[in-house]
């Protein structure tokens, strides 16, 4: 090391090794928020040349953007922030990443140990700040020169990526203290040779099912002619789970986020059928096998406890039995278990049980179609969800906001292929939804390809306002995203809940906002269109996609009328079991 090299030079040299190892291990996307203490790390990442940096003023938005990138890319994404409350702003996205099993690399800059607990500016206790919501956490120590430094920092990067990939995948936190001055002078620093390059770590997501479990479950299926399969979010597996339903002779209830609501054996109106007044005639099943995340709708969630036996199958590290009603809980690759069980049962072929459900499903779909037609051109949020999902081009991604959008899609989306539906359903919060959708849009684009709008979002008005800062910062950057925002003047879900009967309902729960979304879009540099009639939705979405960039399609509905129409659906389906 030269005499004039300072702490910033040492830190930069070590971070260069770390950044290069991250890239070698498959990290290509980095979300950075500006700050002084993180200078050595930020410079190393920016100067690498193989990493794409996304700069965000707001650390919370940056972390949710990274979450969208991680889901879209299927690979770990790094997030960088300076010390202090900047790091604390990551927590909501860290919780979502932990529960949704998405790999994030949280690289936080920090003050050196000698300044902790002294009242030094912008210094908080960052070590272990995320508790059990991270798969691994380490306080890396201050960078030091020497012949073993390169190997040390590359090893740390490799360990962080491996822990993020799991199983189970999720966020990891690497806390990086730097001494001042953090700005390098340009002097060279000896950090040694990196040594032998490692192979990129692989995540063992395809955890094989236990043979004893397979045999037991196959026996239960053989003994249960009246069964149902539920595919929740992230059930995955391509055709494996539908194939099990076909072989067993059972209907399939597939949520949009499962990717399996593509046609028979998946029902088109399953959640609505289960919520109908006369649905008891179709129940109870002898056995329910639930794959993936906890069901969204209350009617499907209530199905398991009412069944003769419930089996819950989730990937390693995930739970999906809030009622604690499962006779058996299995953590393995859901697709592998479905294939194994299907190969060990006696095929039933078409059954009277499955035909009873199919007939009820066709009847319900026809009744709903007639009812929708009777509304004329009146906007109903359930129809908005149905028509939006149906009109998007093949290869699109639709991000569904929590609260009502995901529920409306679950109730009304018609079976189709070619559309990926995702949402922040790990913790089911509304925060960070705009940022996540923007991250998904970035994952669908590349600096070397022609921009095209393949990413769409369906959000409520409060959800969009909760993350309006992301819109203001990112809309002028190169993103292609169409956001369909339901503007019903507040929190529409509360008009369907018991809180609607309280005298404080409007002030404390519905929270009407009065925001002009056209003015918000103009301030952000985004496009804006307004839909006031049902027939205007599809042309407005198509026009927004053709325009490119970030576009808001504002759909104006009446919150109280929408609640009335939601309640009317159950009456429309009376007699579904007959």
Account of the 3D structure:
This protein is α/β, with parallel strands linked by helices and 578 residues long. The chain contains 22 helices and 17 strands. It has helices at residues 7-24, 39-46, 59-73, 85-88, 91-100, 149-165, 211-222, 240-248, 270-275, 298-301, 303-306, 334-342, 352-374, 381-391, 404-412, 433-443, 461-466, 468-474, 505-510, 517-524, 537-547, 559-572, and strands at residues 29-32, 52-55, 77-81, 104-110, 136-139, 172-177, 227-231, 252-254, 287-291, 309-314, 328-331, 396-400, 419-422, 455-460, 481-487, 527-531, 550-556. The chain has a 6-stranded parallel beta sheet with strand order 2-1-3-4-6-5, sandwiched between helices. Strands 13-12-14-15-17-16 form a 6-stranded parallel beta sheet, with helices on both faces. The chain has a 5-stranded parallel beta sheet with strand order 8-7-9-10-11. α15 links the parallel β12 and β13. The chain starts with 6 loop residues before the first helix and ends in a 6-residue tail after the last helix. The model has no long low-confidence stretch (mean pLDDT 91).
Task: Produce a short descriptive summary.
The chain is of the alpha/beta class and 578 residues long. Helix content is 38%, strand content 15%.
Secondary-structure map with pairings?
Elements: H1 7-24, E1 29-32, H2 39-46, E2 52-55, H3 59-73, E3 77-81, H4 85-88, H5 91-100, E4 104-110, E5 136-139, H6 149-165, E6 172-177, H7 211-222, E7 227-231, H8 240-248, E8 252-254, H9 270-275, E9 287-291, H10 298-301, H11 303-306, E10 309-314, E11 328-331, H12 334-342, H13 352-374, H14 381-391, E12 396-400, H15 404-412, E13 419-422, H16 433-443, E14 455-460, H17 461-466, H18 468-474, E15 481-487, H19 505-510, H20 517-524, E16 527-531, H21 537-547, E17 550-556, H22 559-572
Parallel strand pairs: 1-2, 1-3, 3-4, 4-6, 5-6, 7-8, 7-9, 9-10, 10-11, 12-13, 12-14, 14-15, 15-17, 16-17
Helix pairs in contact: 1-2, 1-6, 3-5, 3-16, 7-12, 8-12, 14-15, 18-20
């Amino acid at each position: 090391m030269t005499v004039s090299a300072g702490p910033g030079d040492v830190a930069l040299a070590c971070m260069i090794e770390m950044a290069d190892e991250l890239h070698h291990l498959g990290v290509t996307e980095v979300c950075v928020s500006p700050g002084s203490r993180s200078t050595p790390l930020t410079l190393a990442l920016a100067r690498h040349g193989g990493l794409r940096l996304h700069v965000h003023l707001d650390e919370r938005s940056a972390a949710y953007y990274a979450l969208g990138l991680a889901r879209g890319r299927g690979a770990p994404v790094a997030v960088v922030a300076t010390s202090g409350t900047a790091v604390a702003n990551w927590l909501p996205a860290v919780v979502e990443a932990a529960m949704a099993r998405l790999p994030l690399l949280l690289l936080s800059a920090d003050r050196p140990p000698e300044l902790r607990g002294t009242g030094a500016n912008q210094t908080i206790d960052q070590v272990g700040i995320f508790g059990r919501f991270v798969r691994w956490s380490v306080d890396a120590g201050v960078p030091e020169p020497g012949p073993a430094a390169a190997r040390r920092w590359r090893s740390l990067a490799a360990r962080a990526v491996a822990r993020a990939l799991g199983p189970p995948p999720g966020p990891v936190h690497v806390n990086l203290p730097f001494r001042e001055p953090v700005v390098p002078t340009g002097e060279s620093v000896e950090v040694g040779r990196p040594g032998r390059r490692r192979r990129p770590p692989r995540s063992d997501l395809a955890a094989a099912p236990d043979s004893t479990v397979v045999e037991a479950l196959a026996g239960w299926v053989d003994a249960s002619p009246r069964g149902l399969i539920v595919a929740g979010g992230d059930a995955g597996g391509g055709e494996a789970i539908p194939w099990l339903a076909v072989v067993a002779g059972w209907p399939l209830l597939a949520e949009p986020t499962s990717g399996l609501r593509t046609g028979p054996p998946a029902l088109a109106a399953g959640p609505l059928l289960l919520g109908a007044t006369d649905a008891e005639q179709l129940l109870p099943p002898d056995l329910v096998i639930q794959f993936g995340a906890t069901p969204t709708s209350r009617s499907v969630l209530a199905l398991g406890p009412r069944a003769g036996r419930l089996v819950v199958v989730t990937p390693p590290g995930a739970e999906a039995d809030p009622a604690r009603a499962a006779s058996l809980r299995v953590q393995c690759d859901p697709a592998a278990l479905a294939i194994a069980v299907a190969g060990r049962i006696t095929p039933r072929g078409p059954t009277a049980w499955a035909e009873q459900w199919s007939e009820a499903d066709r009847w319900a779909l026809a009744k709903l179609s007639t009812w929708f037609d009777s509304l004329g051109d009146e906007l109903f949020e359930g129809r908005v969800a149905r028509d939006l999902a149906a009109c998007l081009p093949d290869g699109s991604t639709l991000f569904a906001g929590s609260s009502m959008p995901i529920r409306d899609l679950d109730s009304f989306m018609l079976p189709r292929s070619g559309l990926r539906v995702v949402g922040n359903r790990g913790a089911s919060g509304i925060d960070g939804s705009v940022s996540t959708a923007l991250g998904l849009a970035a994952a669908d684009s590349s600096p070397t390809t022609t921009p095209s709008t393949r990413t769409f979002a369906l959000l409520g008005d409060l959800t969009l306002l909760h993350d309006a800062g992301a819109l203001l910062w990112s809309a002028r950057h190169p993103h292609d995203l169409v956001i369909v925002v339901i503007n019903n003047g507040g929190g529409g879900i509360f008009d369907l809940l018991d809180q609607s009967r309280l005298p404080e309902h409007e002030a404390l729960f519905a929270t009407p906002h009065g925001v002009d979304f056209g003015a918000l879009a103009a301030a952000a540099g985004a496009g804006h269109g307004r839909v006031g009639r049902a027939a205007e939705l599809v042309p407005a979405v198509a026009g927004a996609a053709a325009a490119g960039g970030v576009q808001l399609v504002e759909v104006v509905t009446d919150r109280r009328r929408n609640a009335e129409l939601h309640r009317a659906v159950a009456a429309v389906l009376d007699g579904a079991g007959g």
